[in-house]
């Protein structure tokens, strides 16, 4: 067959060459015109790469090119290249990149072929595989290995973003419209008027009504939307841990682990379990294997928290995109315990159980209950709230302070009995997402977001987030319409403590309307948090500094440049500007959910005080003096994007 084709091509060429058309210059010109016509191949237009829409792949699509005989796809890690071919010659105007790594961003260009001739490369398109929330299982060594491997790519992004920073427009000046720190704090106080704002609770409804009222007063009721988010409302009404000490059952200080001990059908109101205690160390699979049969027993283990090597990351990443540390508190040895991440008890965002979780290692082997020591968690405290993915679990679990580690360990190793009691209610309910729209001159939209639910008082998580969103609404509602070139969308969602369901639901519901023209999400969480440290006796003391804050930005040059310039001008304390993928495919918090489901670029500002997720997150932890300076910086970023083409 191949010989046949070659023979016909040779014959056709010989006929073509001896044709009378070659007898004069006119014939030669005709051949030139023919070759030029063949070689003029249009570049593929409207190239689109999927932004996290597909698991383990990126789908690239483009408009077919007239008379093209094929296409080739090229890929790079950043927009400037270099680009490398990743496909065979394709017949169709679509290609699935199945070798895209989760958590990495890619740029794609397409060329069209007409036989041996090809077009110029298309405009680049940015895409990535479906992302997921980090669970916290990655060790410090694994984190550092990944970080080191990505340094060359980071440096290219940083250099490109710095050039963009030089071209940024000056932001609209909103200083005259900004509320004072005390005025912003009054928002925080009202949001935090109750002891908690757990999804579906009466306390949460009080806060929601307040936010609805304030947004309506600022933006007009017609511009405010409220949407219900369904959930299972878990309410522990009583809990208790009794342990055997010298033959006598005595109460041991403990706090229930949310979403454990109550499930529909089996025990919707919880109950008590009793069994002999066993000590499982840090709760690894190997330690469980050594224990042998634990059917009906109460497992006691440690729940460690990972450490983030702040100083080392700073050094390796050349201060990240930018480091703001006016008090000079960072050095090479600076670390931060991530008290919102449990190394051996990760959050689970799917139906599948994590087989390495200390919880399932105990439950699957028939344990009656689980007691976890909050290993090395600062402060003598047991009120840790997590994991909070909204997944109900039958086996009861309780937390105890790491200051009680030696005592509970000795009692467990002695093999005495323990009784865990968690009783309450589990019933269907809902929380509410609240949003407000401030129309601009175009449908291009800037999002300012946070969540309003909280495990306890939640002054910094996320009273200050809500306070800042309302402050931005108040500020920009006073800016004349002719200066508001873009629309502003203010969002406070429920269900952060339910696997981020509020933000996920909002993103899914509004991907094709409110979020369709979104150009940036500025997400604000845990702002103006004072840094409390353990005094060695279990007491939290204010060290005079701000808690570590991290500004995560995805790989968008304008977003990186905007955040970098803001930090240089306002110099917030102890704040790092780093890549969004440093801790995982997306950072913890609401920005990740919007980005995962819509692809919107983001600047995600989130504080990391040690008292997060505990009853210690109270109003005295907010540094009121920092609220207005932070508001000025945030408004400046909005103002920059307002004037950006």
From TrEMBL:
Q: Does the keyword Signal apply?
A: yes
Q: Which UniProt keywords apply?
A: Signal
Span of domain Peptidase M28: 433-533
One Pfam family per UniProt: Peptidase_M28
Q: Which InterPro entries match?
A: FN3_sf (IPR036116), Ig-like_fold (IPR013783), Peptidase_M28 (IPR007484)
**Signal peptide segment:** 1-23
Q: What is this protein called?
A: Peptidase m28
